[in-house]
Every structure is written in structure tokens, then in C-alpha cells.
Design goal:
five-stranded mixed β-barrel, 13 helices, seven-stranded parallel sheet, pyruvate-formate lyase- activating enzyme, OB fold (Dihydrolipoamide Acetyltransferase, E2P), 3 domains, single chain
Length: 462
Amino acid sequence: MTTLSPQTATPPSPTRGVHVITWGCQMNVYDSARMQDVLRPLGFTPVDTPETAEIIILNTCHIRDKAAEKVFSELGRLRLIKEARKIRGQQTLIAVAGCVAQAEGEELLTRAPYVDIVLGPQTYHRLPDMLANAARTGKAVIDIDFPTEQKFDFLPQNETPQSPNYPTAFLTIQEGCDKFCSFCVVPYTRGAENSRPVSTILEEAKRLVDLGVRDISLLGQNVNAYHGVGPDGNLWSLARLAYELAKIPALLRIRYTTSHPRDMDDTLIAAHRDLPQLMPFLHLPVQSGSDRILRAMNRGHTASNYIDIVHRLREARPDIALSSDFIVGYPGETDEDFNATMRLVQKVGFALAYSFKYSPRPGTPAAEAPLQIPEDIKNTRLQILQKILHEQQDTFNDQLVGHSIPVLFTSRGRKQGQIVGRSPWLQPVHINGPEHLIGQERLVRITARLSHSLDGILEGNI
């Protein structure tokens, strides 16, 4: 194994391919696109299958249960592809990136010695040098440090992470987390909170809009803790950034995720009131409705704090809808703790929610906590919670039937003559209509609620 050293990569043939397999959050989707961006000046182009790729990148996530084992299982499949290509005289490099790479480090190379590169989420701007070293020496390269330089300063500025004329895009503005929730690995895999300067965010947003993007989702592990340096030399909040982004002509929609209740301040709530571009849909994870469990989780807020935030948001923007995350079966969770979560769900009412059984993450305090909950109890509680969350989602979607709402069309549908768009509340909306409407926002009358989407009819002239 070699450590990373500066190396000037020789541009390969433009016919060489890179294939990226992405797991996890929207930030990983963004990171995967940027990894392709840093390779594009060297002549690498994305290909649809690993069998045709000289470079295969597995961009991993450490949030879900047994994440590392799923990575090793996928690597076993990629090993066979690498060996088959070698028989045909074709070179293949396998890189493991993302949070599992950061957490597992050299263990990845011990268990999967055919992996050529292991890189963390903060070092993918060095990928060309890693590839050059791996190809030149034939030895594995590992780079999972938290560098002193800012990776965004080294990314190609004439590239964007979405193809031209695609109407939606992600834009990372903040990474890392200082909250240290007792169940979460993010502070250990993504590092401390770090916010990009305002100027680089505005430049990237304007480039995206010039390419046809109309809906930008601002990303961060703790996005509403954003505190980037503004052009005036002062630290800007997410609210102030949103006001500035709203000035970009043709940027119709602004979203942000994921938020923490502790950072939902009055200025951001006011931005939801003042900016029509700021969509009336907010993902605000609460995790539990029990104050005792919230303290054990080190969340730093109470159930009543959360409900008060929801009240103020709805007062500022009456049409706002909430989504959230829930963990059931956290160590020590009693029936009363779970019932407190159910009461919060009933009081708030969610348009969408993600709920999971607690699963230990090595290295986190909760993994070593006493009173781990048996799986059968966790399963029962999860089924009860998901039932009411699904009912609330259906109720919210049912309320839209018969109403006309703005829909931004994003792609062709699965059926002939069908196109698909997104409502302000992120539901997929299907209509029969021409493809030239993709990239436009038009009024649609909702005619039916389906399992996970809405059907509608275009209003006005095509």
C-alpha cells in the first residue's frame, strides 16, 4: 500500500470509461457527480455498466444497518468483473469512496485486497493523483485524512454535477456535523461542520441555471447551520443565502436538506414567509417524541421545542408541509417513550416521513448503551408507527385532489406520451403531455392520488 503523494496524471484516452455506483443520501449523489467532474478533464467519460469501465467507484453510505457488509458483498461482484476484464487485457481500477471508506479505512484493503483506492468524502478532489499513483505503482492508495485545504477550491469550476437542461440539481453548501447525536456516525466520517463561501455557491447556482436547472436543493449534513463567508466578509446564515439565491433570474425553486431543529431560527422561518422560491416543504428530523430519549440521543431539543417550531413555520407559511425521520427501539426506549412519539406524530401531522429501527453503529455511544431493545419489540413498534405515518401521507395527498398546483416537469414518464414533474411538496405528478414542457413550471389540476404519486391534467394551452 502507498500513501498519496502529488502526481501529475497523464490524460488517458477519451474512450476510457468511469462507472460510479452510489448509495445513500443526496450528498453522495452530488459527490459522485463531482468525482466524475474531476476525472472529465483527464478524458474519462461516464459509462452505464461496470463491465465497460476502466475505473469503477463505489460511493458508500454508513447510515443504514450492515452498511460495511453490503459494501463487501458488492465488491465481490466487482472483483469478478475486474478479473474478466484482465483476461481480455483491459485494466480496471476499483475505488471505494464515501463514509464506509472513511470508517473502515485499511480494513477495506485487508478484506478486499483487489481494491485499488480508498478515499474519504473530503478527499475526492485528489482522485486524479490517486489514480495516477495506483496505475503507476500497482499498489493500493488510501487517503482518508481530513485535509486542511477545502476540497471545493480544487474542483473544476467549469463543470456542473448535472447534465445540461436537466431542471433539478443538488448543490452542496455545507458538510460535517458538530452535534454528535449518540446514534450517528456523520461527525466521524464527514468531520466537523464546514460551510462553503457564499461566492462559490452563487457561481455554481448561476451555472446550473444557465444550463436549464430551475429547482436547486441545497445540501448539508446540518444545512441550516450554514455559516459561510459572504462577499462582505461577514458570516452569512442559510436565510441570507436563500434571499440572495432568490435573486437569480429563472431559478424558480429553492429547497434545502437536512435540517436540525436546533438551527431553525427566526430568520429562516421568515425566509419561508418572504420568498416564494423557497418551497413549502421542509425535512426536519425529530427522531423521537420522548424527551428522555431525545436527551439520551443528545439531540439538544425537546418535543415541545419541535412542536413550537412547527407552529411558527405554519404561522409564517400556512401551506408548508413537514417530513421527518424517526428511530424506534433506541436503547432504553419504553412503551411510554414510544407512545410519546405517537402523540407527537398525531399532533404535528406529516406529509412524508422516514422511520427505522435503531441499529448500532460501531464507535457511537449508543452502540455501547445498556438496555438494547429486542428485535421483535422494535419490529412491532415500527409497524405501528409506519401505519399512522402512511395514513398521514395519504391524507395530505388526498387534500390536493381537485386543486390546481404548480408542477415543474422534469422527465418523460414510463408510459407513452406521459411526462412527470414535481409539486412544491415533492410529490411526483404524472400527466399526458408533450416533452417540450420538461423544464417548465405549469399549473396542473390533480385528478387522483396514487400509491406514491399524483395524476393530473394540464391547465391552459400546451
